[in-house]
Amino acid sequence: MKMVMIEIGEHLLAIETGSDKAMGFVNENFKIILNPEGVRESLKVSIEYGYGYPFTSFDVAIQKGNGSVFYNRGDYLIEVDENYAKATIKAYNDFALKHALMNLYSAFIVHNKWGLLIHSSCIKEHEKAFIFTGHSGAGKSTVAELSSPRTILSDEATVVKVTSGDVQAFDSPFRSDTVASFSEKPLKLAGIQLLEQSSTIERVKLEKAESVMKMLDKIFYWAYDPAETQKLFSLLQQLVRVVPVYNLKFQKNDAFWEEIS
Amino acid sequence: MTTYIRKTNLDAVEMDGNWVILHPSDYTVTKLNGIGGECWSLLKEKQSVSSLREEIQRHYDVPDDVAEKDIEDFLNHMLDAGLVTT
Q1: Domain interval for residue A37
Q2: Nearest to residue A48, comparing CAs of A8, A81, A3, A16?
Q3: Taking a C-beta distance cutoff of 8 angstroms, is the pair A120, A158 a contact?
Q4: Are residues A71 and A123 in the same domain?
Q5: Across the interface, do B29 and A229 touch by the CB < 8 Å criterion?
Q6: What is the CATH number of the domain that holds A213?
Q7: Burial category of B28 from C-beta neighbours within 10 Å (exposed 0-12, middle 13-18, buried 19 and up)
Q8: Chain B residues closer than 8 Å to A227 by CB
Q9: What are residue A37's phi and psi, to 5 degrees?
Q10: Number of domains forming the structure of chain A
């Protein structure tokens, strides 16, 4: 059995596994804490490979019982105690493990009222963070590519800490086409843009109630418990009170940055 | 006379004059603006179609039949969404 301490957002996760493949994936994709002696993890995660069958669907079945919550997607099974202190992930392969860790971390930060995992890309500009989100195919990855050489904080799932007065975006390990440097400090989130590809460039600010409606399905969240869902709703309200949300029509070039910053 | 009132297991917040209502069990969110939002504010206490109409007519110049039809449609929508009860 091997152990390693990783950092996501402000949290330390102690990862334990007997699988060299799983440990390889974790080492390659997450920020490793090299001298973890004396530090205490927020969450213990035990990982096993060899579970289930190849990916077929994003649908996750959730059950509660015996003090645990179970998330089952066919290619992964998560069991986590109701206090979100100790979890076991059984996964089919690296893809399943990545998604299981996203599922677990998202539920963990909502449970602790810390923040949200937002389906989006996030770019650094003038020491501030800007989120780009939208429906599938709206251009989240395209925006990340077009924004070069700006630093990419995420291209798939942005880790966002929400407090009543401030919202910060963290260097995200949950990526699809880019790799985190893990050297970026968290940055103030200055805006969220809902993307729409167009022949023109136009940015229109949304009302707060509309922002809540538009953002709800952009959060990685699997509802199972009304009390947890109320925490998510509270975090979402805080988010849109602090951070402006815009509809952004953009062309496939980086001229939209002139509208934003 | 049928009376209506908000369900208690909901999370509702007013933002810039609009109401956003979360149904935590169904994981649905409903946005209400204008008269819908005002009706929702009044539904904190038991209301009938006519009591809502009277309150709305204090602020809006709407004929009785039009106001009652709109309020009935609104209440039916809210019942379907599980946000109010009779």
Answers
A1: 2-112
A2: A16
A3: yes
A4: no
A5: no
A6: 3.40.50
A7: middle
A8: 24
A9: -60, 135
A10: 2
A235 plus A121 within the same structural domain: yes
Reply yes or no: is the peptide bond before residue A149 cis, omega within 30 of 0. Answer: yes
Residues of chain A found within 8 Å of residue B15, distances taken between Cβ atoms: 207-209, 212, 237, 240-241
Cβ density class A171-196: b for 16+ within 10 Å, e for less: bbbbbeebebeeebebbebbbbbbbe
**What ipTM was estimated for this complex?**
0.85
Q: What's the gap between Cα A222 and its chain centre?
A: 13
Q: Are residues A56 and A171 located together in one domain of the fold?
A: no
Report the distance separating Cα B20 and Cα B12, nearest Å.
Answer: 6
Residues A133, A48 within the same domain: no
Instruction: Clarify whether residues A129 and A254 are in a common domain.
Output: yes
Chain B interface disruption, residue of A215, A233, A245, most B CBs within 10 A: A233
Å between B53 CA and nearest CA of chain A:
25
Would you call A229 and B27 a contact, using CB atoms and an 8 Å cutoff? yes
What pLDDT digit, counting tens, does each position of A35-91 carry? 878 889 999 999 999 999 999 999 999 999 999 999 999 999 999 999 999 999 999
φ and ψ at residue A120, rounded to 5 degrees: -170, 170
Final residue of a domain: which of A68, A84, A112?
A: A112
CB atoms within 10 A of CB A54: 10
- Report residue B29 as tokens: 């969110």
Which token pair is A205? 């600010």
Mutant choice from A208, A231, A235, A238 vs B, greatest count of B C-beta within 10 A: A208
At A141-180, the pLDDT tens digits run: 888 888 989 999 999 999 999 998 899 999 999 999 888 8
